[in-house]
Structure prediction request, 365 residues.
Amino acid sequence: MTVVIVGGSVGGATTALALARAGVASVVLERRSEALDKVCGEGLQPAGRALLSGLLPELDELGAPFEGLRFHLGGGRTLAWSFPDALHGVGVERLALDRAMRAALAREDRIDWRPGVALRSLERTADGWRLETTEGGLEAAQVVAADGVASSLRGASGRARGRPRGRHGLRLRFADVRRPAHEVAVHFGTGVEAYVTPLGGGRTSVALLGDGERLAAARRGAWPALLSELGLDPGGTLQGEPALWLHRGARTRRVAADGLFFVGDAALVLDPISGAGMTLAVVGGERCARALARIAGGAAPGAEERAYTRDLHAATRPFERLTAFLLLVARSPLVRRGAGRVLAAAPSWIERLARPTLGVRERSV
Ligand SMILES: Cc1cc2nc3c(=O)[nH]c(=O)nc-3n(C[C@H](O)[C@H](O)[C@H](O)COP(=O)(O)OP(=O)(O)OC[C@H]3O[C@@H](n4cnc5c(N)ncnc54)[C@H](O)[C@@H]3O)c2cc1C
Prediction:
């Protein structure tokens, strides 16, 4: 009996690599046979970068560092926050990250990496789980659901809560950017926001968040008008095709129980405006691996499931507050004007709001 991880992207790869580091073997099922260039803002915040680079040492070389966040609130109002203590995030193209994680999974002896194999169904047994995959059945003592925002494991295990929610994202990439930046810029417009992330090598990623119709029109060719409405000049030429994505899923109740652990977007659906989804997938994956390693070492599974649930909620809460604030700012020009004045008058507010991007407090284990 073993640990089976469903999903081999940020959350699943972190869990498997951290488990291997702790001496525990796992099987990783990933339905895609090739790496995915997922629609994403492509900025990994310092908390996620610090943890992931410990498992994937080449991480920093894949992209470009960023040293802070800059919020463009409209009407020329700007708020900037630099990370303290030489901390930095990394802007990294999702395709490059996915490829590097796949290579790391494939070369690790303790990981049975199975790209192109999808989970079809799972069933509780007397001492674990029985999984049906596109390539036969598997028995597992513990299962990690790292299968993304629309997690099929969430539904199959009866842990979906509430109606699915979410919104669309459109990713554009620009090359030959004349003014390389060292920060992530967030532009707020009316009903649309943009994340602008430096990727290195004169390239910039722009992720637009908004309603589906508007972003579909932008994908068909209206993107320059939308960027200029946001006061955003990427300073380079469009590279490849704009890519549209629906980020939508239900909430998950009981993120760890009966040997089934949820990690990353499968565990919680945060609005992408937080710019924190990958960071939480990394932090959650690492915390989940700690709990699973302790179970493998003889600890009581129930206590470890509760510990993981507490850890995940503690790590998530500040990001939820940050997300709620950013959504308030995004939805109301009035709040944007007020927030701009208040935050400019008291810069420590922005520091407090953005602080979760730096790291989560370590719990002694
Ligand atoms: C527009 C947009 C902008 C964003 N910007 C940022 C940003 O700037 N910074 C940031 O940190 N986050 C950002 N995010 C969020 C980030 O992309 C996600 O939070 C992150 O990808 C979550 O990682 P994950 O591993 O949980 O899920 P995913 O990356 O979705 O990976 C899930 C994996 O599971 C696999 N899978 C699914 N079902 C099965 C199955 N049945 N069997 C086997 N495998 C399966 C999938 O193929 C996939 O590889 C953004 C999201 C959007 C939509």
